[in-house]
Write a structure and sequence with these properties.
Blueprint (H helix, E strand, L loop, with lengths): L2 H4 L8 H11 L3 H20 L6 E5 L5 H10 L4 E6 L2 H14 L5 E5 L12 E7 L10 H11 E12 L7 H12 L11 H8 L2 E10 L2 E9 L5
Parallel strand pairs: 1-2, 1-4, 2-3, 4-5
Antiparallel strand pairs: 5-7, 6-7
Length: about 230
């Protein structure tokens, strides 16, 4: 495999451009991507398998489907926090949380996951679905180190992402070309999921490959073994 095949594409658009884009599409996101992502997103929640009473964070909660699923799993004594860059997504999810009647155990924040506004050793589990690949390559370790910092020792992180693993096929090459030429439409790109988690200091517990319309995906469950 060539060095070009192994290289993870850069993210060229700014955070402000990303925020504006997701604000615009927030009302239509489920129509555009919901069915494409939902099965794997739901599998990632099941893989995290939070217990009743757990405190869980979702990074990049989008339109809030996983927030509701996590809120159900942690029960009346647990709590679910969410952080997303887009105010539009926060509005959609906030309304969904209110309709579901779980506002007392869900806390939503608009912000950047590179600087999580939470205390060290705060969460029992962290969930990230189709979000880590939106960060530029140098930012991914910073996001994961923030996850490591805020996760309790022994806590789990479940990551669902488009994967760079293996030899690139025609669909991956096309998607990466679109990401380079039209980043406003193809804003994410394949990344090395397991390797990124290992380099941040997580211990891999389980990894499952899946297909996403010709793209490859990985669902990875990892654990924090040491204190930060």
């Amino acid at each position: 495999m060539s060095q070009d095949d192994m290289r993870v594409s850069a993210v060229t658009r700014s955070k402000q451009q990303a925020k504006a884009s997701y604000n615009r599409m927030s009302r239509w996101y489920d129509l555009l991507s919901g069915g494409f992502e939902s099965r794997h997103r739901d599998a990632g929640v099941r893989k995290l398998a939070p217990n009743e009473g757990d405190v869980i964070l979702e990074v990049g909660f989008g339109t809030g489907h996983s927030i509701l699923a996590l809120a159900d799993l942690v029960g009346g004594s647990g709590k679910v926090y969410g952080i997303d860059l887009s105010e539009g997504m926060l509005d959609i999810t906030g309304a969904r949380v209110m309709r579901a009647g779980v506002t007392e155990k869900v806390v939503l924040t608009c912000g950047d996951a590179m600087q999580l506004p939470f205390e060290t050793d705060f969460f029992d589990g962290i969930f990230i679905s189709f979000t880590l690949e939106l960060f530029d390559t140098p930012e991914i370790p910073l996001v994961l180190l923030e996850c490591l910092r805020t996760l309790k020792r022994g806590g789990h992180i479940s990551v669902v992402a488009i994967s760079k693993k293996g030899k690139p096929n025609a669909m991956i090459r096309l998607y990466e070309w679109l990401h380079e030429k039209l980043p406003q439409f193809a804003d994410c790109r394949p990344i090395y999921v397991q390797e990124s988690l290992k380099e941040a200091g997580f211990h891999i517990l389980d990894a499952t490959d899946f297909s996403l319309g010709g793209l490859r995906g990985e669902l990875v469950l990892a654990k924090k073994l040491r204190t930060t």
